[in-house]
């Protein structure tokens, strides 16, 4: 047993996976989190009124093509199969999301077959060589009618800027299908933990070499007391916003309790610009294997992150990337015993599966190479 302590800052997936790997290799690990709970933004808790499992920071649907990652999460808790089928509420009516043949046929009042969609859309598309932003990418794929009905208003609300300021990569997250498959994800493995994500992360952290302390604000002057520190918080915060704040969107929710079934689906997106919220989540539909008479409904609003707001979506606009580069260069020059790992520390939009894979890989790499002061 290695008596020297390793510190992991943040008890979300990144921190938990790293802590576990270190602990299994005989290291003594302290995991701290400023929040009063583990599991970061994946935190789930049964609602006291309805007994529905609520994903407190917004719904998370686990999806991956990676067998190793799938087996890893399943070894810490049972995931039940779940397919996310989103409904989009638009000015022109209610449609299936992600965009599929049903969406296109209902929207244009056509009866296209899979083999006919491509040439149909070609007449609509505003083709551009190498579309360079979200709007150009959407117009090149879908043309104006679909773009303005489904994407323009929603994206403006969600990101708080014109879609042409955003990278094309955000749109590429969403599949567009020429068949009637309305599953939101393409991944081979998809599911939701039967007893919530908190239980999974609790089980990852359950190891004799791991100590957890919650409600603790990290102070980097403590670094010297540890052999190494794995920091999973925001990189700009670590460096005291020395180069200014990195742009983030945050979300907040309005909660309501109703009887019966409120909206008939787990998620309904609201694509119109003048409706102030982006989507409505009815959490009992994320656990269709359970029965509940009452229902808890969370309406999601999006806004710019200020002060102590939780950072959710990294905007990654051009000025942000310039600032990020300054942070990375500066952090690398510090030669401190700290590694920056995960979604916030690397300022990237990462799905849970990526977070787990990177944390597993990084912990393995660290244990083998003992490389210090790394921006992963
Ligand atoms: N989007 C949209 N309309 C929708 C759904 C998504 O305009 O009905 C855009 C929006 O810009 C969003 C992006 O597509 O940020 C990616 O969607 P995704 O569902 O992956 O976002 P997330 O669920 O991660 O917030």
Describe, in plain words, how this protein is organized in 3D.
With 376 residues, the chain is α/β, with parallel strands linked by helices. The chain folds into two domains: 2-47 and 63-80 and 194-246 and 314-375, Rossmann fold (3-Layer(aba) Sandwich), CATH 3.40.50.720; 86-172, no CATH class. Helix content is 31%, strand content 24%. The chain has ten helices and 18 strands. It has helices at 13-24, 67-74, 101-108, 114-124, 134-159, 169-172, 196-205, 235-238, 318-333, 352-369, and strands spanning 2-9, 27-33, 44-46, 53-55, 62-64, 79-81, 86-90, 93-97, 189-193, 210-214, 228-231, 248-259, 267-270, 279-282, 294-304, 313-314, 338-340, 374-375. Strands 8-7-13-14-15-12-16 form a seven-stranded mixed sheet. The protein has a six-stranded parallel sheet with strand order 10-2-1-11-17-18, with helices on both faces. The protein is globular, with a radius of gyration of 22 Å. The mean pLDDT is 95. The structure holds uridine-5'-diphosphate. Uridine-5'-diphosphate binds at residues 88, 97, 150-151, 154-155, 158, 170-171, 173-174, 269, 271.
């Amino acid at each position: 047993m290695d008596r020297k302590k390793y510190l992991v800052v943040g008890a979300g997936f990144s921190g938990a996976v790293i802590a576990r790997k270190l602990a299994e290799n005989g290291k003594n690990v302290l995991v701290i989190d400023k929040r009063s709970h583990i599991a970061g933004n994946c935190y789930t808790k049964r609602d006291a009124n309805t007994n529905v499992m609520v994903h407190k920071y917004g719904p998370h649907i686990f999806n991956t093509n990676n067998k190793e990652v799938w087996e890893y999460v399943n070894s810490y808790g049972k995931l039940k199969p779940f397919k996310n089928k989103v409904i989009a509420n638009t000015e022109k009516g209610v449609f299936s999301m992600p965009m599929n043949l049903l969406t296109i046929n209902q929207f244009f009042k056509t009866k296209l077959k899979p083999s006919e969609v491509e040439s149909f859309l070609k007449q609509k598309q505003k083709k551009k060589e190498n579309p360079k932003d979200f709007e150009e990418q959407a117009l090149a794929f879908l043309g104006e009618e679909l773009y303005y009905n489904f994407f323009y208003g929603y994206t403006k609300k969600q990101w708080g800027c014109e879609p042409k300021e955003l990278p094309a990569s955000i749109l590429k997250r969403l599949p567009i299908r020429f068949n009637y498959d309305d599953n939101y994800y393409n991944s081979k493995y998809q599911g939701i933990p039967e007893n919530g994500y908190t239980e999974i992360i609790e089980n990852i952290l359950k190891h004799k070499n791991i100590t957890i302390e919650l409600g603790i604000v990290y102070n980097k002057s403590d670094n010297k007391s540890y052999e190494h520190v794995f920091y999973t918080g925001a990189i700009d915060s670590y460096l005291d916003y020395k180069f200014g704040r990195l742009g983030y969107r945050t979300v907040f929710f309005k909660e309501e309790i109703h009887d019966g079934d409120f909206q008939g689906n787990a998620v309904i997106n609201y694509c119109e610009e003048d409706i102030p919220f982006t989507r409505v989540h009815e959490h009992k539909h994320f656990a269709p294997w359970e029965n509940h008479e009452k229902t808890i409904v969370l309406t999601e609003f999006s806004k710019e992150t200020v002060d102590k707001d939780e950072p959710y979506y990294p905007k990654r606009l051009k000025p942000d990337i310039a600032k990020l580069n300054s942070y990375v260069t500066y952090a690398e020059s510090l030669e401190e015993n700290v590694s920056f790992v995960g979604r916030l520390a690397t300022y990237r939009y990462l799905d849970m599966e990526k977070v787990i894979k990177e944390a597993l890989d990084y912990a393995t790499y660290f244990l083998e190479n003992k490389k210090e002061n790394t921006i992963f």
